[in-house]
Write a structure and sequence with these properties.
The structure is a single chain. By secondary structure, the protein is α/β, with parallel strands linked by helices. Helix content is 31%, strand content 13%. It has ten helices and seven strands. A seven-stranded parallel beta sheet has the order 1-2-3-4-5-6-7. Helix 4 crosses helix 6. The longest helix has 11 residues.
Length: 254
């Protein structure tokens, strides 16, 4: 057997173990999984059900997460919520090879540093890993891509848009968008929407009244709410301040 025969905890029924794990903090879950191979095989997937926001100072961990999931494809279907960057600016590539003292001295005394070619985003390892993960994470129901990338319109992110369109989302956080209508139109099961950060809110005018038939709660600016709320079954509206004066007047609230 994988686990110790004298471990009464490991001998508990699997449904009891899962119930216990659901009530533990993430750090404690990790400690439990580390105890033996049996518990790791049984409970490791729990760590990947809810992938919550990552500290901006630890943004590089997003790349490590994607790399882990590429090597452990069996964990991807367990992801139910993802609120983190699609990509990151500091992807942890392999460390450069050690240089000789002469070569290091040459680099320090050189006036003009060697030119560096910029790799297209679609050809980077980080992007390929992200496409691999999200194209298989079809069980995600809560999605919030953070970071500066406008994945709604950038042609490079077409594989990401195709992957999201195959998800049956319940909650979506949409920031820094340019073309939101096609993304929202592909989510008829959406009930909770947080949207903001658009350069031109009129892009939402392409939405039809029937595009979001189950939308219950909306967090957005007044300008964006004017284009989404009319005709939709919104029950809870949370208005936020945009980058410009939204003109809070009774006529608009009507």
């Amino acid at each position: 057997m994988f686990h110790q025969k004298n471990s009464k905890f490991a001998q508990l029924p699997e449904d009891i173990l899962l119930l216990i794990m659901d009530n533990l903090w993430k750090e404690w879950k990790v400690n439990v999984i580390k105890t033996c191979r049996y518990l790791r095989r049984l409970l490791e997937f729990i760590l990947y059900i809810h992938l919550s926001p990552i500290d901006p100072w630890d943004e590089w961990k997003c790349g490590l997460l994607h790399r882990t999931l590429v090597g452990r494809e069996d964990l991807i279907p367990h992801i139910r919520s993802y609120c983190a960057p699609i990509l990151h600016n500091r992807y942890p590539n392999r460390p450069p090879p050690k240089q000789s003292k002469i070569h290091g001295f040459w680099r320090r005394t050189r006036v003009d540093p060697p030119s560096r070619e910029v790799t297209p985003i679609g050809e980077t390892e980080a992007f390929k890993n992200a496409v691999f993960v999200f194209s298989r994470a079809t069980n995600i129901v809560i999605l919030g891509f953070t970071g500066p990338h406008d994945w709604t319109s950038d042609p490079n992110f077409e594989p990401i848009r195709a992957a999201v369109s195959k998800m049956d989302l319940n909650r979506l956080q949409l920031r820094n968008y340019t073309q939101p209508a096609p993304v929202l139109r592909a989510q008829p099961t959406l009930e909770h929407l947080e949207i903001g950060g658009a350069n031109d809110v009129q892009e939402l005018a392409d939405l039809q009244k029937t595009d979001l038939p189950k939308l219950k709660s909306l967090t957005t600016t007044l300008e964006e709410a004017l284009l989404i709320v009319p005709g939709s079954p919104v029950e809870h509206l949370d208005l936020t301040f945009g980058y410009v004066n939204d003109g809070w007047n009774d006529e608009r609230f009507k």
